[in-house]
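Inputs:
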Amino acid sequence: MAGAHPTFRYVDRDGTPVLEASGTWTVFSIRTLRRRRRQASPAGSTRKPRLIDLTHVERLDTAGVLELLQLAGNEKDIEFRTREQGQADLFRVVQTNMVATPPEPKVNWLTHWLGEVGHSLVDLYHQIIALCAFFGETLVVLAGAFMQPRRFRPTAVVGQMYEVWIKALAIVAVLCFLIGVVIAYQGVQQLRQFGAETFTVEAVGIGIFRELGVLLTAIIVAGRSGSAFTAQLGTMQVNQEIDAMRTIGLNPIEWLVLPRIFALVISMPLLVFWGDMAGLLGGAVACTIYLDFTFVQFFARLRDTVGIWSFYTGIIKAPVFGMIIAAIGCFEGLQVRGSAESVGLLTTRSVVESIFCVIVLDAIFSIIFLLAGV
Amino acid sequence: MADGGQLVDHRNGREVIVRLRDVRTQFGDHVIHDKLDFDMFRGEVVGLVGGSGSGKSVLLRTIIGLNPARHGRIEVLGVDRRGLHGKAEHDFHAHTGVQFQDGALFSSLTVAENIMVPIREHAGLDEEAMRCIAALKIALVGLPADTGEKKPSELSGGMRKRASLARALALDPELLFLDEPTAGLDPIGASHYDELVRSLQQSLGLTVLMVTHDLDSLNAICDRVAVLLDKRVVAGTMDELLAYDHPWVREYFHGPRGRAAARQKDKASSDGK
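Outputs:
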């Protein structure tokens, strides 16, 4: 589509410096011209043209006019001569709308980087404040709900439990089973060097009960339910459904957030128990293969060596993790503003924050249990 | 009836930019258009109207090529749209511009970067030239200069429409498609927008097809109006359509809103005299 190349020259007509252009001056044809112009040094000797002669120009568009105006030294009120009325109109439109060379956005990488870090820190600060405010509001609504028990919505809680508990059973079981197998296999490999491979049972039992069962379940739940909460509430926010609820006099915290928090607080221990059992089963299967244990031997040794408190320490953490995942998921969902784009952004953030908080809380629990001696 | 669904032939020897013949589109068993003929001539503004669900946007998408037709011939800018593949199709997009209903600006880019996307893809200019062109287009559509550095989410609905128009105009396309350009604008904003489209159309020599429900826009800037009736297009000037005998057309143009818009137009033309 290039057609005839754009060409130009500066001439002197009766003492008036003129820019003579010919050929095709369109956005598609000026590329090579610009490249050559940049390589050549700017013609400083010639005087600034006072007239642009377009009579030999075959095709012209806004980009072409812009280029010609720049060649003529960015004079806003330069005169011109054309053959066609259409080209004259176009020229005039560009002339009136021309912006003095647009400011190049300056980017200094150091200030840019510092700015980014500063912004993130300020964002983080606001985020923490807002999260605390959200927790506070939720607790107030919760207290209010305890005063008037009819404000609890058991149907919604059960509906959410179906989503976050029943539908997660399969994935939790499969993953915990596999982790049980992996720990047992690694345990046998390492402990055999000391002739202590029977201790694999303790490794599997304590590992699954205290940490892995609950952590793995929490991560699965954060990825599948926490993100779903953010996406659901975020979409409602974008559709102005939450505003609609407020205008009807419904409190979104009471209607949307509390049922989800309750559902996850109840479901998490159930899921963790289920995951623990799957993990033990995986360990038992691996031990029967690598250690020539029978199932009975495995579970008898487990009963004798792994105390019940190992199980309790895991299961105590579950409702706390469930609450934090649900609260962060709902909080980020309600943070959605405006476009659908922010739903995706905040869903990612919700999952990252939930997993972060779960692991930090897990560390705090470890210290508490250490001090308590369990 | 004349060629291309016209009531009276208005071609007057002009180049045919869009030519649809015997086009059928359907979703599953649901036929949207059948035996549809439609012509557009260089340098005119055509308004596309029709009842809800009559397939205005589908027709627009079919002409652009976003929605395949089941049957028929679609010629845009002299080439068979359905036969276009690879490089030829890529180049075709450099000569058409589309403004989508809600702007469809790329949300991760600033307005200026949005305008630069088609230029970079098709013209391959250097950064500085693209910035200058983007700034010019922003000024052309009547947005303040600092809009260029803003993200689409920071703009109001009306500004997003203008920014989207600026992107559609990035390469000075010969053919411009506007999907409900004034929907959701206040009457003042809408009439300014109409004037803007008209003046750009005249100075840049564009051919424009706009889907609209805005009777004022139809009166103010459209040379011809295409009405989707019974899966086909009936096209004519406002006056021809006002005289056309079809229940939907009569209700549309002679209803209370249609009459008010027509009165406005009469008043405007008598004021002009």
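Remarks. The first helix of chain B runs from residue 56 to 64. Strands of chain B lie at 16-27, 30-41, 45-49, 71-76, 79-80, 96-99, 175-179, 207-211, 224-229, 232-236.
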